[in-house]
Amino acid sequence: MNTDRFAVVSLVFLLLSLTSLKAAETKPQQPLGENISLLDSTGQIHPLAAAAAKKARVFVFVTGECPISRGYFPLLGRLDKQWNTPDSEVSLRAVWADVTDTPAEIREFAKEFSIDLPILVDRDGQLGQRFQTKFVPEAFVLDADGDLVYRGRIDDMYREIGRKRPEASEHTLADAVAAVVAGQPVKQAVTEAVGCYYESYAPLEDEAAEVTYTRDVAPILYANCVTCHRDGEVGPFPLVTYEDAAKRARQIARVCESRLMPPWKVAERHGEFEGQRTLTDKQIAVLKAWVATDRAKGDLADMPEQPKFPEGWYLGEPDLIVEMPAEFEVPADGRDLYQNFVIPIDIPEDKYVATVEFKPGAPSVVHHSLLYLDKNGAARKLDERTPEPGYGTFGGPGFLPTGSIGGWSPGKTPRKLPEGLGRLLGKGSDLVMQIHYHPSGKAEKDRSKVGIYFVDKPKQEAFALWTSSFMHDIKPGESDYRLKASYTLTEDVTMLSMIPHMHLLGQTMNVVAQLPDGTTRDLIHVPQWDFNWQDEYVFAEPFQLPKGTRIVSTATYDNSAENPSNPSSPPQRVTWGEETNDEMLYCFFLVTTEKEESIQPMVIDRLTREGIDRAAARLRLKLSVRK
Question: Which of 154, 247, 371, 556 has the fewest C-beta atoms under 10 angstroms from its C-beta?
Fold first, then answer.
């Protein structure tokens, strides 16, 4: 795109944005001032009059693809059973906000997700226009006179897109309905809904538009998005065709501009990490400009070839394939789950792992996975205490691992360690597969598996060291709590990868290496920590750090009510610990050394320090409780 063309597009986008903001400020007083009738997905007729016998009428705009909307269907189902009864003074109707879906497709979705509540089919978008819908899901409440008395969120499970709380602390919609039924004014008549944008567009036919899908947008999506957003993968919807992108254009631009997508949480380092998934500022500007210029399709001659993806295992048949011992049932809704599955590894001798490839059994609910090793039987004991497959924890696996063979997150491509390098998989070890599940609105059964690739001719072992601190004592309301952790290398090492780790209050982490000669080297910077997107960051070019280097991790935490991820409302005092409401500070780094005989002493030294620090933290917390 040349400079003049980009300037014109930017001006158009600004003018349209100002127009959109002005329209959003106008509040519809009686959205159903003119009586209309609509069909639901089953063909039933629903007269929608200005006034009605019901004291409160609830309309919730939904789609089957927005993850937040989909996650609310179980709750809406419970409200349907409570409100849509003959003697109820409340009625509840869902409004399907995707005008591209047919009634048959809506019925199929309702059947798959066990949805019984009436779903109005708004094929021409007239209800969306009448209510001036901005988000999906978004709830509206009308009183008996047809006046709009509430619009906004269903509850506060989400305070920001991509930031889900363990459970809702406010039931905003239900409270508004209760007030209307009781003849009382609604305390909060307007709240900000959190979800996907309500999309309505009329694509341009002009092939000479300033920004087009075929020439400008498709190359961005193909290179950065369709790895996950295609049939059979973890993305909640495909982004392969023009129609796929056009019907979601505003939402695509929104999540890319906020850097929520592609999922990559470390600061851009000009290719320092392998598989870096980031968009440039110019690419994001193109996506925004395409929305502002009515989503022109463009000349098919400009269309790039669709990327090719290998079928089956990405790196070919693994040397060993292991899977969960049984299916695990993920409920339709509720808080996210962190379940650990213990899988015995049957190998005749110690092996070295070059890489792993993880295959989720139920991609719609598997968020990410970390693969720990246990040679002491600790995980088996934890598993024996629970009746279901595996055992639940939050954060870590509930024991001190004896190793790790990596992990997986959406979009991650398996890559082998440099030639001859591998992580030790000791004979007699158990693989502890920790999976983060996020309920999708539909009950699912998962049985994920892992392909393991061994090193043909091992030369050096890759092993983990880490920085950690247990000094957390974060007061309620403190929004910028800072903590440091450090570890000094006892031998020369080569850095291979890093894994930062905090809990829900974490905000930023910065890790630097302070070298013996007084210089420093930046290792990793996480400007916006997100517990839901943990990953292992592999250096594109391994590098050496000398003995005596001090690795320092600095982290910040927000324990205020303004933190959308804060699990406590109101905020509570937070200390170190393993539970949801506790906090942590870790940064693991995978290293290797040419002195094979020094590996065991280094690991023992680190474990010893870890044990002492943990014991001291427990004693300090115990004494503080007594005070």
Answer: 556
In the CATH scheme, what is the code of domain 37-197? 3.40.30.10
For residue 618, what are the contacts with CB-CB under 8 A and spacing of at least 6? none
Closest C-alpha among 447, 445, 485, 439 to residue 465: 485
Rg (CA), the chain: 27
Strand segments, DSSP code E, in 161-274 are 163-164, 196-197
CB contact at 8 A, 324 and 431: no
Contact 463, 595 (CB under 8 A): no
* Residue 16: pLDDT over 50: no
Instruction: List all residues 6 or more positions away from 504 whose beta carbon is below 8 Å from its beta carbon.
Output: 166, 531, 565, 566, 567, 580
CA-nearest of 400, 402, 420, 414 to 352 is: 420
pTM more than 0.70: yes
Mean pLDDT in the chain?
88
Instruction: Give the pLDDT confidence of 469-491 residue by residue, as tens digits.
Output: 999 999 999 999 999 999 999 99
Q: Where in the chain are the domains?
A: 37-197, 213-302, 319-458, 463-600
Most confident of 10-19, 31-40, 85-94: 85-94
Domains 319-458 and 463-600 fall in the same CATH topology: yes
- CATH code matching the domain that covers 463-600, chosen among 2.60.40.10, 2.60.120.230, 3.90.1150.10, 3.40.630.30: 2.60.120.230
Tell me the residue length of the chain: 627
The CATH number of 319-458 is: 2.60.120.230
Q: Using an 8 Å Cβ cutoff, are 289 and 10 in contact?
A: yes
Task: Specify whether the CB–CB gap between 556 and 518 falls below 8 A.
Answer: no
113, 20 Cβ separation under 8 angstroms:
no
The residue behind tokens 């497959």 is 389
Distance set, CA 94 to CA 76, 84, 341 (Å)? 9, 12, 38
